[in-house]
Amino acid sequence: MLSRWRDVEGALAMFSDFHRRMSQLFAEIEGVYDGVAPPISQPSGPPINLHDAGETLVMRVQVPGMVAEDIHIHGNQEMVTIRGERRDERPANFNSHRRERGSIQFSRSFTLPCRVDLERTNAMVKDGLLTVRLTKDTEAMPRQIMVKR
Amino acid sequence: MIRDMQRFGQPLVDRMNEEAYVVPKVDIFEDDKELMLIADLPGVARDDIDVRIERNELVIKGKVIDELDGPILTKEFRVRDFYRSFAIPSGIDSSSVKVEVANGVLSLRLPKSDTLHSKRIVVRSS
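Above: the input entities. Below: the C-alpha cells describing the complete assembly.
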C-alpha cells in the first residue's frame, strides 16, 4: 500500500547533495580526459557575459591571472575586440597531474547589440574579472514612448 | 497524485538551481617535496576564498558576488559560487600548507611529510 512520503525536506537535501556530487564527478571525468578539460561548446577565448544596464552595456570577461597590462581592448562603435595573454606559470621541475587551466592567449571580437560611444567607455580588471562599461550612443539610449489618449 | 508529484518536483528543480556550484578549473603539479594546486577563481576576492583540509579531503570554496548589472544579453559563464573537493594522499602535512591568492588565482603548496618523499629504488642486477 502506498503511503505518503513525508520527509520531503530530507529528500530534497539528499538530491541537491547528490546533484552536486554528480556535477563534481563529471567535472573530474572531463578533467582526466587528456589531462585537459575539453571545452563543451565554448568560443575560443575567455567567457563573456553582456548585460544591458539602461544607459550602458556592461561586459564581464573572466581573465583569471591577468592584470591590466596583459589586456588590450580596441573597437569601433559597433564591435569590441579584446586581446590578452597570461603566461603559463608552470613551475619548473614539477610533474603535471592535471592541466585544465591552459595558458590564456586570446583575441575575441564581439559585435555589440547597439552603437556605443567609445569616448565614454571604461574598463577595469580586478581579481581576474574584467569589467568594460560602454556608454550607449545617444540614439541607442532608452527612451520613453508617450501613449496618447 | 500528479499534482503531488509536480509540487514535489518544482522545489527540487529550484533547489538544484540555487545550490548548484561552478567547478573551478585547476592545474595540479607534483615534485619530490610537495603537491601544488592552482585554481582559477575569477571574480573572487581573497577574503571570499575558503580552503579547508579535513581528514584526506581538500575543499575549495569561492564566494561570488553577483553585481546585478541588468538584463543579460549574452551569458557564457554562470555567476555562482565556486566549489571543488579533492581527495589528497594521507602523507600531506596540512598544518604547513602555503596559500597564495592573486588576480583571481589560488595557489596551494601542500608539503609532503617525510613518509611521502619519493625514495629512489635501486635496481640491482643479479
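Note for the figure: The beta strands of chain B are 26-30, 34-40, 49-54, 57-62, 72-75, 82-87, 98-102, 105-111.
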